Amino acid sequence: MTTNILLKLRLNIDSPLAVPSAENYRPPCWPPTRDWPVVLDAAGEVVSRWGDAIWRLDPWAGKPLTLNFGDGPAQKHVASIEHANSNLLRSVVGWWLYGPNSARGCRGLKTRFDHIRKLFVLSTKENILASELSQYPHVADRIPNIFQPSRAGVLLALLHELYEQRDTLGFSLLDRAGLKRLAAAIPDHERHQTPYVPPRIWCYQITRLRECLEDFLAHKDQIEGCFRFCLAAYQHNSSNLEGNVRPPLFCSLQQPSYVADGRNTKQLYHEPFIDIARRFGIIDLLRRWLDESYTTISGVQLSHYLYFVSRVGLAYILNFSLMRVEEAWNLCTDCLHIEHDPQFGEIHILRGRTTKTMSDIEALWVTSPSVSIAVEAMRRVADLQVEGILPKEAGYELLNSSKRYLIDYRNKPWTRTFSKFKGVRRPSILSYSQLIHLRTKLFDPEQLRITNEDFELARLVTPTLTDEFSVGKIWPLAWHQLRRTGAVNMLASGLVSDASLQFQLKHTARAMSLYYGQNYSRVRMEEKAHAYYVLTMYETLGKQLQQLTSNRFVSPHGEKRKIEIVRLISAVDTRNVIKLAKQGIMAHRPILLGICTNRTPCPYGGIDNIAHCGGGDSPGEPKPCAHVLYDPEQLSTVEMLEIVLEERLITASEDSPLRASLEAQKRSVENFRNVIQKT
After folding, report:
1. Which one of 500, 531, 547 terminates a domain?
2. How far apart are CA 349 and CA 263, in angstroms?
3. Which of 112, 116, 189, 442 minimizes the number of CB atoms within 10 Å of its CB?
């Protein structure tokens, strides 16, 4: 391991003892020597060293907590591990303490340890090193049998992460082929898959959510001005009433129809709210988004609109992250951060707490830059709600801090019966279907009605769709669907090919692929989201393969060659196709001319150079690659490439390697066009 990498390692456990001046803060080499101190107490005394059979995490956890590596004295209830395997296990756990995807909490580290330890026990029983598991597939195939089905997916994500870090870690437990076999062997745990929202419906709902947020931010000054005017009128008049009964807002804006023992003689009255809204320039805004079932526009509708906007922001965030609704619900006003990566520029990150992760302190989610409008709109609504709480009321100081929730305590100061604000209360989580039925004009139900194309795309990704997702019915949107749909979309699969959808995902897809798929970044992602993404990645391979059996794809070597390529794919058995993809028996790699089915790495390219794919590198008789399947839908893209090639040929020197390459690619374009025109 290079010195440059060593400088990036540091103790990331969440503890006051993890400070740069501590002796155990950064290892001097990798792996550290056996006498290197891993755990120190508050007095700086060594509690556990690297080579110890048991690491005691008590100083960090605040309670007895140990990691038993199995190469010490035999214990009745702890399986032993051979010494060489124990050293490998120490390296893995040490990487989780000091590496870029390290555990922050002791509970999270202990959970990871308990998961991965079973692999080392299995390896010891089979008299092999855990780092050699890929060389013994008959042993690796037993891995699913030693884990509960509900936990096997978490193990797959951990092994995937260790494989991606193999160069710096120094070894891997399973290679890519082993990971595919493991993914294929994991038994189904959920009875029904979460539905994937078809591209057209997904695109429609995200467009409407964004329009609502943009409309709010375009009128933010007018809305805030109107709210503060009404709040001031209400607070002035309610302060002149006795008892706990407060007047509704309309009594603060216009002359009430009652007189309560002369107690309202000091009150001020204004014109009806509809005139106030018109004066502040928001009457059209309220009518544009609130349902026409309201007979009049009143101050109650202003509160309803603000409540509505904050929930729209929640929906927008869930569409562009892999967060659960509970996690997004607990985001604070300072949750959005920007990671400046020297290679890929600005990466937007949502930071918050999660209740279902190995990391028990905080978690990170990569998101789209467009999420900033949702965070901004929700923050402004939360700020207005705080203004309606009197400083003397309980919890005011908590709400008036930068750590406030984006969806804050629901507060309507002008309700008929005043109830004292209690800072510990928060509103209950709204379902997506409840948001849709909030007496607003958010969605046109007809736009959510399932078409034949919607149904076919949804069923291709989710074969287990129930009857409620039939053609002609309204698609029943739900929060959990957005998480699965996001995982599929972030893979930029061929299924999600609609131009407008790709445009809206252009920021997210690249960042997610790099950060979740390849672990290029230093930031640590929320681990359940990471696991969900990895599982979807393997599954999507199978979905893409199933398309190859259609008439859309052709082989330049004729129908017989195509039959040979797709002979293992069953057009009717989706589950078996997915297993083929996970096991690596079939390959699917998008290239300019269509799809490459070569299971081994290709030295010729296909992404930025099509000379070999189309047989252009053989000037005589064309000899296209035997693994390529042409896609006629790529013709327009290939013709655009041809224009670029012709432009570059004008300036390319005679007899130069560049000119030879450009001419070979032009021949491949012609070969491609000839094959496509014959179909």
Report:
1. 547
2. 54
3. 189
